[in-house]
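Pasting as-is:
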Amino acid sequence: MEQSAPPPYRRIVEEIRRRIDAGELAPGDRVPSTRRITREWGVAMATATKVLTTLRQEGVVQAVPGVGTVVSDPQAGPPDQPQTRARKPARGAPAPERAPREPDGGGLNRDRIVSAAVKVADAEGLRGLSMRRVAAEFGMSSMALYRHVANKDELVLLMADAAFADVTLPDPAPDGWRERMEAGARLQWELYQRHPWLAQYLSLTRPQPMPRAMALVEWTMARVEGMDPVTLIHMALTLLGFVLSTAAGLEDDLEAEQETGMDQEQWMAAMDPVFEGILTSGSYPMYAGMAGTDDDKVNLGTLFDFGLERLLDGMEVLVERRAGGAATVRTP
């Protein structure tokens, strides 16, 4: 019986393995980036991402901050557990069972593990996080961590909840509903800037049980009055979704910097000649109108500020209609 051809990502994985085995790529050499893979093999970005993820899982390559994805050194020891993105439990699934706190001779405990894991994720993103990587911070094997944390899923959940403990609510709190919602949104934005991985981990459709995060959302909406519960939760989640979607770019930029070795400013400088050629065609007057302006006129920060104000403008219309006794506003 004729065997079916391997999927495209697998063929690319084997080709990169062949280059490594042939000595074309030595330990420490950068392997093709996702963008280069898409160009060289003509595949989608998702396929290119799966190629590098598979190579990492198989211990062939590893991500090096500020350098990119490089060939692993076989002399450095066995590969770690697959470094896949921490997966959220399926809808309706119980939260992972927590391992009991047990001190050990080295003073290792759950709080220290979570703190170390947060530092790793802040610097390297969730893709760079693994039980082995965190254990290396203590000079121990990954098995030492399992006495305190059940698995990586639980670890990331603990990290996310711990991150929200960093939030300090203003005292006194803003009295107006709009001022309170703006303050709450900015507290979240500042939190995601400190922890870029956090925004991509959180989910609106499959929320995790994180009391500290829930408390911040409650505080944010506490001054909105006269709304039925369904409308109020839609307002809260719309605001939360805006902050999360904008902040997701922070982690994307961190991963791109690790992959390319260039920060955003360096990358934009490298792309300037390409964009200049496109804009001089005259087909894109809106973009061409930005020529000569400072690069920092449009960035994630300005997008957040602009979008937040426009979102609150819309919320204000809703609140004023409800306060004026208008007909009930329909919500999906």
